[in-house]
């Protein structure tokens, strides 16, 4: 069976790391992919006036999954509609430390399951009078249940024992109250073990004792902030993949952006993007292949060439070649 993969490199280092991930997928001999390229981001906006051309939307909508690199200034105009195109409700952000790398917390293996459709990112903002602004925070029982079902299912499927529900229901009683109640109900119905945690205290615990956490189910903003915090614990943006999962479609992208400071220099770390491709393999049912890619990345991180962000002097191509070799 051939899977159609939309490939949208975008801007900056997206142009370098996305082909690296495609190279890795091509090296998997037990799966067959057809790659369809789409353009998005600053460069295409400068050319056509549109950051996300209709043709790219269609390519992503029709594909079995999408690989997205990064967009620069136009990031919000590209990634928010793209997440809509694939109907994504769950943002999956694993943060783990790797042997052989310097990390603030070398014993971290946490997966953030972030609600991706509502909360304070509902987009309902207004200036009600000069200098006075409001934001409407939308939290529904349906979306809270959906993300919790996904999070508990993810934990079970991936062999994680501990689930934590992050919230701030002591202050945001209505909105986070619904989130906490709905997510807890899902845990109870499943007979799953779980804890609940106030998100501010959780931030402190994550810095001090990340090894105590496995899967953390979060409202939108909390998931965004806490997963970036965890990125800092494990060694930086060049290592963190993510998945945006929808009912029928999904999009995979590194957590980092277009990194204009190093774009075009050939030194971007391809690991985050290649690990995102590993998540794509999992999603399409190629679990073993996903594990093989992760093992190859891990082995190169431990003893292969490293890009400058990890203290080495190798380029994107050399690291990618080492990972493909390892496969
Ligand atoms: P954007 O607006 O597109 O997010 P940015 O300036 O915020 O761009 P990021 O891509 O978020 O840049 O990166 C932040 C910092 O991390 C930059 O200094 C960048 O060089 C570094 N960085 C990010 N990704 C990588 C990577 N894959 N390899 C090496 N360094 C990276
Ligand atoms: Mg950034």
TrEMBL record:
Segment forming the signal sequence: none
Positions of the Isopropylmalate dehydrogenase-like domain: 4-323
Alphabetized UniProt keyword annotations: Oxidoreductase
InterPro entries: IsoPropMal-DH-like_dom
Family from the record: Belongs to the isocitrate and isopropylmalate dehydrogenases family.
Protein name, as recorded: Isocitrate/isopropylmalate family dehydrogenase
Native source organism of the sequence: Haloarcula onubensis
